[in-house]
Recover the amino acids of this structure.
């Protein structure tokens, strides 16, 4: 259970608060007099269910979705019809009291006596959605006409050496940028130390959520966001830049465009480095010392998508997909590097299409780039329709791990693998330098 503190008060500055938490630890206790209402994580999910009118029993889900059709009339015809919101309006604090409520620990504990990062991904996803519902709160109705789904995990940067399984954790977050139907959410995770009560930062996360109509069929307008003061204007401007950066990154995708001249040289040098000098042949390839062919560095998994893992819209919960992909990615990094890997960054997890209940979900994790003791992993997930025998991609996940020791170099053999390598290199370079300088974290699955 997480305990959640939800605030509607006017905080002096969200950025200042975030900065304080990132530099000095989150020191100010929640101000109960100004509207902080602590609740538990079970209540986060039950609150989400209440907001959309989701069924608690699978047998009622058709009826529950049917009832949501009536909410169509509450949708705004244009964004301008919705009242603007401030960043403070969606600010939420969540406490995961691992220290004070030992009964919570088992769910979060891994074999290395630290916190399962996959569980944190689930909590961030639920929190991100609740933040967006708080931003778009419909004053006239308890039920929201919006179906808010996770479109993208833009970035998660870890900056903490240790995530303790027995110390309280706090999540904070708010909507940081708004488009017409999409919202960027920034969240922070902090943890108290073993020997003091101050919170210090663990990670920063940026998600993009998209609002859809009550039946989750079409996009729907969300309340505009008005930044207050220069700090919030800067946060908002960064949100705008993030959107442009994502468009640029997608335009330059190796699935659409040829690699740059520099990248072509990298690929050709790898090719030359694998030629058999004894035979004058393009075909004879020899693995260089301390290297692994890319085709030998993958793991696959299968999930049957049971109703238990459904979200409030009766599709598979995005956090569950992330946890499963992360754990397969971690296992791949573990078997590749031969020692315990630590996650240092997650970026660009795109939720391309929803996963239906009952789907067969095929996960495929691949080491696609290595550098010193870093391992870049790509996890591809697709649903398989046994009737039509069709495969459809649902998600692509990118995880950066750091191993305890230097790892062998990954070597692509085919052109397709070379593109995977370059894509992995691009994602690796996109993770911040500061993140990569972090010596170690204990965020394991
Ligand atoms: C009960 C316990 C559980 C409680 C947990 C509750 C949490 C629930 C959260 C979830 O679990 S959601 C499940 C995981 N996510 C999904 O299944 C989403 C799957 N993907 C989709 O359904 C569509 O791809 C998506 C709705 C995200 C986008 O559809 P479209 O590409 O048709 O969208 P469209 O072109 O209409 O664009 C709509 C907006 O989305 C934006 N957008 C679309 N794809 C994006 C992307 N990849 N990154 C950033 N923004 C994106 C786009 O820019 C635009 O923003 P603006 O209107 O503000 O300009």
């Amino acid at each position: 259970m997480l305990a959640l503190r939800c605030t509607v008060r006017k905080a002096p500055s969200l950025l200042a608060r975030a900065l304080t938490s990132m530099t000095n630890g989150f020191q100010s206790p929640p101000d109960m007099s100004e509207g902080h209402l602590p609740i538990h994580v079970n209540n986060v999910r039950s609150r989400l269910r209440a907001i959309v009118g989701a069924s608690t029993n699978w047998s009622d889900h058709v009826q529950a979705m049917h009832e949501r059709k009536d909410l169509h009339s509450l949708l705004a015809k244009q964004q301008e019809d919705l009242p603007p919101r401030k960043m403070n309006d969606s600010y939420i604090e969540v406490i995961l009291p691992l220290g004070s409520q030992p009964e919570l620990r088992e769910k979060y504990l891994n074999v290395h006596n630290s916190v399962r990062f996959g569980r944190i991904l689930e909590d961030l996803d639920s929190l991100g959605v609740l933040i967006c519902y708080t931003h778009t709160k419909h004053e006239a109705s308890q039920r929201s006409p919006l179906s808010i789904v996770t479109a993208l995990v833009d970035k998660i940067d870890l900056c903490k050496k240790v995530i303790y399984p027995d110390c309280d954790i706090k999540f904070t977050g708010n909507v940081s940028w708004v488009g017409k139907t999409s919202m960027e959410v920034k969240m922070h995770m902090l943890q108290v130390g073993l020997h003091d009560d101050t919170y210090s930062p663990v990670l920063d996360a940026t998600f993009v959520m998209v609002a859809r109509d009550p039946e989750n069929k079409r996009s729907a307008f969300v309340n505009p966001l008005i930044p207050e003061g220069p700090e919030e204007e800067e946060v908002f401007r960064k949100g705008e830049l993030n959107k442009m950066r994502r468009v640029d990154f997608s335009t330059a995708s190796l699935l659409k465009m040829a690699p740059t001249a520099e990248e072509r040289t990298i690929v050709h040098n790898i090719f030359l480095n694998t030629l058999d000098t004894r035979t004058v042949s393009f075909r004879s390839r020899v693995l260089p010392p301390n290297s692994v062919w890319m085709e030998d560095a993958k793991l696959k998994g299968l999930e049957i998508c049971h109703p238990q893992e459904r979200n409030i819209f009766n599709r598979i919960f995005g956090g569950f997909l992330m946890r499963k992909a992360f754990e397969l990615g971690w296992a791949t990094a573990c078997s590749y590097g031969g020692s315990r890997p630590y996650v240092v960054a997650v970026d660009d997890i795109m939720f391309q299409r929803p996963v239906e209940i009952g789907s067969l979900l095929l996960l495929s994790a691949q080491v696609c780039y290595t550098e010193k003791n870093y391992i870049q992993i790509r996890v591809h997930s697709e649903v398989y329709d046994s009737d039509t025998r069709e495969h459809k991609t649902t998600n692509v996940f990118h995880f950066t791990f750091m191993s305890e020791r230097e790892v062998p170099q990954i070597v692509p053999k085919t052109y397709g693998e070379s593109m995977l390598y370059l894509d992995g290199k691009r994602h690796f370079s996109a993770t911040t330098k500061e993140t990569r300088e972090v010596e170690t974290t204990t965020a394991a699955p």
